[in-house]
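Appendix B. One record, verbatim.
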Amino acid sequence: KRKLSEKQLAALAAGRQKNPRLLAKKAREEAEAKAKEAEAKKE
């Protein structure tokens, strides 16, 4: 896990409030990437 600075955390929080839709899209893409990785490990 990457350590985020206070500034980065504040920026993320501000961005989350401004654009929840973009954040949800990002989270979904990350989840899909993780699922693909899990599938690759199974084989």
